[in-house]
Amino acid sequence: MKASVVAVLVATLLVETQGTFYPGCWTPWYDRDDPSGTGDWETLSDQRKLTPRGICDEPLDIQTRTVQTQAPVSSTGDIAESDPLKGFICENRNQIQTKMCSDYEVRYLCPVEFCHPKGCWTDWFDRDDPTGDGDWETLELLIKENPGRICKNPLHMEVLTVSGASVESTGDYVEASPSSGFICDNGKQRDKSCHDYKVRFYCPEEFCLEKGCWTDWFDRDNPSGTGDWETLEDLHHEYPGQICDFPLKVDVQTTAGDPVISTGDVITASDIYTGFICENSNQLKPPCYDYKIRFFCPEEFCKSKGCWTDWFDRDNPSGKGDYETLEDLLKEYPGQICEFPLNIEVETTSGNSVSSTGDVITVYNVVSGFACENINQPDKKCDDYRVRFFCPEDFCNSTVVTPPHGGNCGSPCGGYGGQCCKHYTVCSDNCCDSSGVPMDLLHTNKQQCP
Ligand SMILES: [Ca+2]
Ligand SMILES: [Ca+2]
Ligand SMILES: [Ca+2]
Ligand SMILES: [Ca+2]
């Protein structure tokens, strides 16, 4: 029997609706209309005109509730019709007792092909070779050896040979599941030998949200026309490559930096599928405020936008161990490493992989950096490692301008022995060493900005 790797790749987004589980996902709640005219017209076709990326062509189900109290239609006594393919309509003329419909919002259940789950793929991992008992790429060992880089509860996994071929093509008998990882046991093969495989995992939203990045703020529209339209579709068009296809979170403020709720504007849409829409016609006091928007994108996107630092080797394992922590490195190499790296890479100073040394690693993640402690090793001695970090784009684009600039850093520079220079990462004057590298970003005078 051959274990089916395909099976673990099938998306398993199950949504419960009326006691039945469907593979799919609910859209955000939409409230397009008010009942003040002829009724509350929350039709699918009208909503899709506003938010084409936000709803599938043929929803499987629809849910409706009042905007104010989030109560079902049955609780208001309104006579209304609702259909997943048509949307929701409550006409005032059909109401006998109330004369006017309540204000409703709707959401739709879309099929799984439409859903863009808010998870993310890890890097590919290949910790083992099939030379011993087989190729053991188990989740437990991978997490232990790559702390912070794989979630504890992956939703899916993918397996390929290290050269990129499918498992099916090798004919190997393998065991694979997202909860335990991958094993190819040489003893279970007809020819007593496995191929060498690599694996990656699909992790849930919470894990990805720790690892993504915010885009810049965008403000493409003004409310002078029909409203302020900061839709994802328009923004993708106007700023190609600057926003991921499927953002994980959205953040909106007025261009003055105030929260949306402070304006009192009635917002048509503000979600990861649509972006942001404020229509002047929906406001008691038009026009809408002018808003700006930014998106939180998955790590994969962020990684395509940054740069690797140099390799750093600040410590030797001669004391308690080899401590290449981010905190120490930031102190010793100010301006050369970003404060919030997106990725970390570690190897021995002679260029070998961490897994090849067999050392038990204490710390290995983008937040804390790397540490190997001698006491944890069977031979009581760590190898000597070096680290580098992957930094966000704004850090990579920053330039250090060396003097002549002089004199705006104030007194701290004298005290720290440096000279004044300008560092665009923080948009401020810094005390720099002779090569123009800021000595310590804490000792800055933020008065001067280009
Ligand atoms: Ca409504
Ligand atoms: Ca392998
Ligand atoms: Ca705007
Ligand atoms: Ca070292």
Question: What's the quick description here?
Answer:
The chain is of the alpha+beta class. It has 5 domains: 14-111, no CATH class; 120-203, no CATH class; 213-303, no CATH class; 307-396, no CATH class; 400-445, no CATH class.
- Which blocks of ≥5 consecutive residues have pLDDT under 50? 1-12, 399-407, 423-428, 440-450
Q: Estimate the strand proportion.
A: 25-35%
Please give the number of β-strands.
29
Mean pLDDT: 83
- How many structural domains are formed by the residues? 5
- Estimate the global geometry from the Cα principal axes: elongated
In DSSP terms, counting alpha (H) and pi (I) runs of 4 or more, how many helices?
Answer: 12
Distance between the termini: 68 Å
* Radius of gyration, in angstroms, nearest whole number: 28 Å
User: Roughly what percent helix?
Assistant: 10-25%
What oligomeric assembly is this protein in? single chain
What binds here, in terms of ligands, is:
calcium ion
Main sheet specs? 4 strands, antiparallel
Structural class: alpha+beta
Biggest sheet strand line-up: 1-2-7-4
Main attributes of the structure:
450 residues, alpha+beta, 4-stranded antiparallel beta sheet, disordered N terminus, disordered C terminus, binds calcium ion
